[in-house]
Design a protein that fits this description.
single chain; 165 residues; mainly alpha; 4 helices; 79% helix
Length: 165
Amino acid sequence: MELNKIEGLLEKYDKGATTLIEEAQLRDYFSQEIIPYHLESYKQLFSYFESDAKQFAQTPIMLRIQFPKKTRWYASVAAAILIMVTVSINQTIKKDELFLSRAELRAYNETLKAFHLISNQMNKGYEALSSLRIIESSFEKGKKNINMLSEFNNSTNKIFKLNKK
């Protein structure tokens, strides 16, 4: 195989995007004796997978378990009872949540009303403050005018050299 194709497959393998056929191609390639030096670590990886696939259990494993007919009947009755209890518990919890949600909804609506009252009062206070700001700005304009008049007065006194005595 071409080295570029193998390197491309290895990039896909590192990203977890290879198919089973591509992984088989990689295993076949790395089963060779001569591998480029920069790919030696992959050779160890794929040789491990190959040796691991050849291992078998020494003794057969028995998976079939036989239960007596009475035990199966008792287990099915217990499962049915458990399902009925679970459903009834869920129904009672949902009813309690419904009452709880109505109470929560009522509390939420009352909180909204309180917030609206507070908002209205704050808006009234803001309007009062805006009229005070208008007065404050007119005082500042008057102060600037007085400063300008005093500067004008100082200038005229210097020009005409008037001394107040």
